[in-house]
């Protein structure tokens, strides 16, 4: 066993320095992709913190949130949700009012609720986080952009397409004001908006926005990238829906070849692209 692996025999005496050491080890574990070790280090660090400082403090609430993220990365969404809720409750006790720290944890809680399939609850929590952030921290920033994009994405999953588009447009305008330019978030937001309005029977507009997103992705990424493959597939599917399979065929062929290079064989996005590839090929010479 490596000296850096979690082990009760390797634990130090409870101290703030020992907690910092465990957190440093957790960061190393994430860097090497070992999310199980990362979770265990955070579990040890949090337990030590609670023994050392049993009351409600901002540092403890922050560690509850970070521990929740470690559980999320390890795929333990139920445990992550419990830690996020404890962090929210502690922050609410400490601040006695709305606060940016609470909004941050609510972002995390929304994400894990989505992972557990409760989209309505995820949207409710995300809406609360965004609204709270607007009240306590009205200056526009990256956190506000990401929260607004997530509101749009969750609304789209619930079929609230007009409301989703409103959020996507607002997020795009906010990013323009913040001077984003070519940016991964801008391209993703454009693609999400195009996808939503494709279901509103606005194919021409959807195609135009997908092409804008695709052009930005090609400027951002050198060569193959999952976002490019997904965007190509979505664009091809719209051409098929509007009965232009001859335009869809070369686009889906590029998406299909790229997906084979960027996704493992059992990845769901690769399966989706494969399905559109088969359908479009069956409808073209």
How would you describe what is shown here?
The radius of gyration is 22 Å and the shape is globular. The chain contains 13 helices and no strands. The chain starts with 15 loop residues before the first helix and ends with a helix. Mean pLDDT is 94; it is low at 1-11. α2 packs antiparallel against α3 (58-73) and α11 (226-241) packs antiparallel against α12 (245-262). Helix content is 76%, strand content 0%. It is mostly helical.
Structural class, by secondary structure, is mainly alpha
* Secondary-structure element series: HHHHHHHHHHHHH
Task: Report on the biggest sheet.
Answer: none
Note the gap between the termini.
Answer: 59 Å
Q: How much helical structure, as a percent, in the residues?
A: over 70%
| Average predicted local confidence, pLDDT | 94
Question: What's the total helix number?
Answer: 13
Beta-strand segment tally: 0
| Poorly predicted runs of 5 or more residues | 1-11
* Radius of gyration using CA atoms only: 22 Å
In one word, what is the shape?
Answer: globular
* β-strand amount: under 5%
Task: Give a brief outline of the structure.
The protein is mainly α and 285 residues long.
Output the keywords.
285 residues; mainly alpha; 13 helices; 0% strand; disordered N terminus
Question: What's the topology here?
Answer:
Elements: H1 16-31, H2 35-52, H3 58-73, H4 77-95, H5 100-115, H6 119-136, H7 142-157, H8 161-177, H9 184-198, H10 203-220, H11 226-241, H12 245-262, H13 268-282
Helix pairs in contact: 1-2, 2-3, 3-4, 3-5, 4-5, 5-6, 6-7, 7-8, 7-9, 8-9, 9-10, 9-11, 10-11, 11-12, 11-13, 12-13
